[in-house]
Automatic annotation (TrEMBL), chains A, B:
<keyword id="KW-0238">DNA-binding</keyword>
<comment type="similarity">
    <text>Belongs to the LysR transcriptional regulatory family.</text>
</comment>
<dbReference type="Pfam" id="PF00126">
    <property type="entry name" value="HTH_1"/>
</dbReference>
<dbReference type="InterPro" id="IPR058163">
    <property type="entry name" value="LysR-type_TF_proteobact-type"/>
</dbReference>
<feature type="domain" description="HTH lysR-type">
    <location>
        <begin position="12"/>
        <end position="63"/>
    </location>
</feature>
<dbReference type="GO" id="GO:0006351">
    <property type="term" value="P:DNA-templated transcription"/>
</dbReference>
<dbReference type="InterPro" id="IPR005119">
    <property type="entry name" value="LysR_subst-bd"/>
</dbReference>
<dbReference type="InterPro" id="IPR036390">
    <property type="entry name" value="WH_DNA-bd_sf"/>
</dbReference>
<dbReference type="InterPro" id="IPR036388">
    <property type="entry name" value="WH-like_DNA-bd_sf"/>
</dbReference>
<protein>
    <submittedName>
        <fullName>LysR family transcriptional regulator</fullName>
    </submittedName>
</protein>
<dbReference type="GO" id="GO:0043565">
    <property type="term" value="F:sequence-specific DNA binding"/>
</dbReference>
<keyword id="KW-0804">Transcription</keyword>
<dbReference type="Pfam" id="PF03466">
    <property type="entry name" value="LysR_substrate"/>
</dbReference>
<keyword id="KW-0805">Transcription regulation</keyword>
<dbReference type="InterPro" id="IPR000847">
    <property type="entry name" value="LysR_HTH_N"/>
</dbReference>
<dbReference type="GO" id="GO:0003700">
    <property type="term" value="F:DNA-binding transcription factor activity"/>
</dbReference>
Length: 297, 297
DNA sequence: TCTCTCTCATTCATTTTTGTATATCAGATA
DNA sequence: TATCTGATATACAAAAATGAATGAGAGAGA
């Protein structure tokens, strides 16, 4: 007895409906029509024997079954996208699409010039940049190359250690003019500081290094390092950011240069299977080279 | 501009052709016909702009492009299978299919009674057992649950340490009657021994523990632990196997009980997403319980 | 050499899938 | 209340994919 396997296209339709919330919206997204999408869902429900959505005049409400299957469908979509990227880059030469995952700060402040230079050099190279502080999983093919702040553990990944990007305490001159210069680290307790919203591995690392941080009550909180950087630039208070970025603005002052410096270990990581792919290889090398130069400054 | 994405079914067809080696064979496998399969491949080649196969009267010979894309397609198939497994097990209760990955020895000698009992208890549970000494990747959804001899490193996996399965040196009485009893470990150098064909992490671990092994020239080599066990049972010589398995046969004698004992660390591992799925939960618990009992004997 | 069997390619009828048009329902807004 | 906009469901026609049949080439074996 052979089970009849549903068309893989049904999975794509299913995921799109889940993402868009209605048959009509999914139809627009996929370039199909609403009746077709409806039939796909009907067929899929028929095969798996469960209702996936509750139809309503407002759209389709996913059942528990649908939410259970969602992560699988998402991974399927990631893989399909990765396959297509691999396909477009076939045939020698640096061409096709490469998808890079990086943190927001790195992606916004550091990578753009590097990637622009890369694009100048290889006009047929298309770069997708996925910014998130959540660690995107290279194993799941959500990206081809990642810039990471933690050493990856999987063996199937090839990793190049860049080194520590130095972080320092900074404030805008405008803030310091108004609130004074902290003379000692303890003075920070009476200053406006910029901190994290939630606990994270990165925050714990800072805490461990500088226990004083524990006592500080930040007057501005944001999980986004980018928002923190913006807050420093706007003169909201004293915060932690990359030394090299702060130096770009002559009005930003580094505080406690000797007492506080935290190196942020950085790695460029790529899936092993991609190392022979010209576009990935070129991008990987450019990122390594560019980030090394950035650290050197 | 929106790229036209090929049907995901084309990927399935592509992979099947790659696996089967011909359009006709793939058609039989998929329950379609040869012209259909041919059209799928034509369409896929059209979209990606590369020839995937060289047609010949003997079948289709994959081009480099095709072999480059193969791992992606395989992963896609794994994911689709995982989604389908998840779908069949929906709706509460222990039902549906669960896929277990284990080493050959564990899968053949240890798990069957456990799984039989599990199946007795849950008649609607279907178990797939994938035996390989290569570590199947749970992240790639090639299996739902794995019995492993190395601690996994990914955070997304939930792991239960079972403990060390004791390994010992054994020989069949028939062999010992013929070749005599080794009095010291050094005597092993003059005995027929059973060893590994290739180097592996496991072999290196043994070497480190018992450097003498280094000097031994096995007269029977096999990578398969199962084959080694069979060789011991057949009286081919002295080899390493699980103490508990050897004890089952009263004619197998354990040698150097005090001088040689190697605990084989064992873990049961499952993807975190599956922990709330009844069928996976029940299977996981049964494996943990059963293996703990096995170790206890 | 002939035949048998495997393969892929092509043609045409059939089946299936899809799209168009329309009906219906629910909510927001004038 | 009337209307407009979003949604799903359904009927029927159009388009597309599929299957059946056939042709042709390449080996294997008698």
């Amino acid at each position: 007895m052979r089970e009849i396997e549903p068309s893989w296209d049904f999975y794509r339709t299913f995921l799109t409906v889940l993402q868009e919330g209605s048959l009509s919206a999914a139809a627009r997204e996929l370039g199909l029509t609403q009746p077709t999408i409806g039939r796909h869902i009907d067929a899929l429900e028929g095969v798996i024997g469960f209702q996936l959505f509750i139809r309503s005049p407002q759209g389709l409400i996913p059942t528990e079954a649908a939410t259970d299957l969602k992560p699988h469908a998402e991974q399927l979509a990631s893989n399909a996208a990765a396959l297509l990227r691999a396909a477009t880059g076939l045939g020698g030469g640096v061409r096709g699409t490469v998808r890079i995952s990086a943190s927001e700060v790195i992606g916004i402040e550091v990578l753009p010039p590097l990637l622009a230079a890369l694009n100048d050099r290889y006009p047929d190279l298309v770069i997708e940049l996925s910014l998130s502080d959540a660690v995107e999983d290279l194993m799941r093919r959500e990206a081809d190359i990642a810039v990471r702040m933690v050493a990856p553990e999987q063996d199937a990944l090839i990793t190049r250690r860049i080194g520590g990007i130095p972080l320092g305490l900074h404030a805008h001159r405008r803030y310091l003019d108004k609130h004074g210069f902290p003379d000692t680290l303890e003075d920070l307790l009476h200053h406006r500081t910029i901190g994290f919203d939630r606990e994270s591995a990165f925050v714990r690392a800072i805490r461990k290094r500088v226990p004083l941080i524990e006592l500080m009550r930040p007057s501005f909180r944001a999980d986004s390092n980018l928002a923190q950087l913006a807050a420093i630039r706007a003169g909201s208070g004293i915060g932690v950011c990359q030394v090299a970025l702060a130096r770009r603005d002559p009005d930003i002052v580094r505080l406690f240069k000797t007492e506080f410096e935290l190196p942020l270990e950085t790695f460029v990581v790529m899936h092993e299977n991609l190392k022979t792919t010209p576009r990935c290889r070129a991008t990987f090398d450019a990122l390594v080279e560019g980030l090394l130069a950035y650290i050197g400054t």
